[in-house]
Protein 1
Amino acid sequence: MIVVRDLRVARGGRTVLRGLTFEVPRGSVVGLLGPSGCGKTTLMRAVVGVQIVQSGTVTVLGRPAGHRALRHRIGYATQRPAVYADLTVRENLRYFAAVLGAPRGDADRVLDEVGLGGARDQLAASLSGGQLSRASLAVALLGRPELLVLDEPTVGLDPVLRGELWELFHELAGRGTTLLVSSHVMDEAARCERLLLMREGRIIADDTPAALRDRTGAGDLEQAFLTIIERGEKVGRP
Ligand SMILES: Nc1ncnc2c1ncn2[C@@H]1O[C@H](COP(=O)(O)OP(=O)(O)OP(=O)(O)O)[C@@H](O)[C@H]1O
C-alpha cells in the first residue's frame, strides 16, 4: 500500500525526516509512534502528498504520493478540526461528501461509525474537542477510501470512546482498508498489527508489538521502546 525509500524532508530550514525507508502492507493497522516533534505529522503529510520532500520516494498504491488518481483513494484526518464551525455536523458531512463525490447517504453512515449520530444536528462550533476530532475522522471516512491516514485521532477521548474507535479501525482493516495511525499513547501501540517507532526523524523500530517485546525482553511496549532507544539500535525490517 505504501512504499517509502530514503525519504528526506526539511521544514523551516531544519532537517525533519532523515532518510526513512519502510513499507506498509495492505489491510493492516500500522501505528506511527514517537515523541512530540519527531516527525510523525511530516511523514503523514508526505504519504498524503502535501509535503515538499527533499529526496527519496513515497509510493502509494503504485503511484507517486500526491498523484491526482490517489485523491479519492486516501482519507486524511489532521490534528486540526477540518469542519466548518457555522454548519451542523450533518451539513458538514453532506458538503464534504458532495465535494468528494461520495454518495449522499455516506454522511449518516460515517457519523454513526464514529459515534456522532446523536450530535448530527448540532453546530460544529458547539462540539467538544473529542467530538470535533471524531467529526474530522468522519470526513476522512467518506467515500470508503482504501488508505486512511489518521493523525492522533483519539486525542482527548475517554478510554471507552478510544476503545470503540480502535474497534472501528480493526473492522475497517478487516474489510481491506489500510490504516496508518499516529499516537503517542503506548497502550494504543499494542492495538496495532505493526509499529513504526520514530525518534528524531528516523525510524528506530519497524515490527509487530509481540516481536518488539520478544526482541527486547520487555514486559510492555513502553519498556521495549525505551530499551531500543538505550541500545541505540535499529530493529525490524531494514
Ligand atoms: N511549518 C513548519 N515550519 C518549520 N518547522 C516545522 C513546521 N512544521 C513542523 N515543523 C518542525 O518539524 C518537526 C517535526 O514536526 P511534526 O509535526 O512532524 O512532529 P510530530 O511528531 O507530528 O509532533 P506531534 O506529536 O507533537 O504532533 C518539529 O521539530 C517541528 O517543529
Protein 2
Amino acid sequence: MIVNVENLKKRYKKQLVLKGINIKIESPQIIALVGPNGSGKTTLLNCMTNLLTVNEGSIELLGKSHKDSSLFYDVSYLQDNRILYGDLTGYDHLKFICQAQHIDQSKIKEVVERVGMGSYLKKRVRNYSLGMKQHLLLAMVIINEPKLLLMDEPLNGLDPTSAINMRNILLELAEIGTTIIVSSHNLDEIDRLTNTIYFMKDGALLKESLTDLHLNQYEVSVSNTDKAVEVLNAKGIPYSLAEKGVLRFEESDVSLQQFIDCLNENQIEIISIENQKVGAEKRYRELFEGEASV
Ligand SMILES: Nc1ncnc2c1ncn2[C@@H]1O[C@H](COP(=O)(O)OP(=O)(O)OP(=O)(O)O)[C@@H](O)[C@H]1O
C-alpha cells in the first residue's frame, strides 16, 4: 500500500481540524487535494509527513509508519517557501539534499536543467522571486526521485510557462510510477493533471473520480445552426449556443433522444454529439457554493 491513513484526527487546541480522515492508495497515481482556505489540506499533509503530531489514527506511507525516518529517501514534500534559507544559494540547498540523502551530485545539473533554474542557481535565495523559489522547491523534491511526492500549493507564483513545465514534470513522474498528492486552488491545472480529486470539506475528505461524473450535458454539432435554433425554439426544447454550429443541451424533462429526434425530423444533420465531462471547477462549485471559507 502506498498510503494508508486510518481515522486521522487532528486538533488545534479545541478546534478539530481533521475529523477522521481515511485514505487508501494502492496503485501509483496523481491525486489532487482541493478545498476552501482553512479546510485542513496543509494540516493533513503536515500530519502525513510527521511535521505535526496527530491526535488519533494511524498513517502508513510505503508500508511503513509515517514516523520511520528511512522514508526520507522515498517520500518528498514540497512545502511553503518559508522552509528555504535566504542566505544560501539554490545550489547550496540542492547540494545539502544530495549529501544528506547520498545522492550523486551530478543529479544537481540534471534537475536544474529540468526545472529551468540554471541562470540563478548560484544566487542567494533571498534575491529569488516567488516563482524562482517555487522552481527551487520543485528541484529539491524531485532530485531524490521519490516514490511518493506530496505537494502543497506547488503552482504558487508560477508564470504560465513554468506552470506548464511543472505539469509536464509531474506527468512524467507519474508515468514512471511516482504517486503524487498535490493540493492546489488552480482547478484548471488540476483538470490537466488528474481526474481523481479528494475534496476537503469540514475536516473530512470526499473522494471523487471525475471520470465517473458525467453531467447529462452534451455538445451537439449541427450543419445548420439557424434552422436548428428555429425548430428547437418552436418545440420549446431548452438549449444554449456553445459556439457557431454547436448547441449545448442538458437532459432534464427532455431526453437526449427527443432532442435528436427533433433535429432529425427537421432534416438537420447532426455532425457529432459529445458528452461533457464535469471539470474540477464545476464540481467544486457544486460542493462549496455558498459556503464561506474560513
Ligand atoms: N498552527 C496552528 N495553530 C492553530 N490553528 C491552526 C494552525 N495551523 C492551522 N490552523 C487552523 O487549522 C485550520 C486548517 O488550516 P490549514 O492551513 O490546514 O488549511 P488549508 O486547507 O491548507 O488552507 P489554505 O487553502 O488557506 O492553505 C484553519 O482553521 C487554521 O486556522
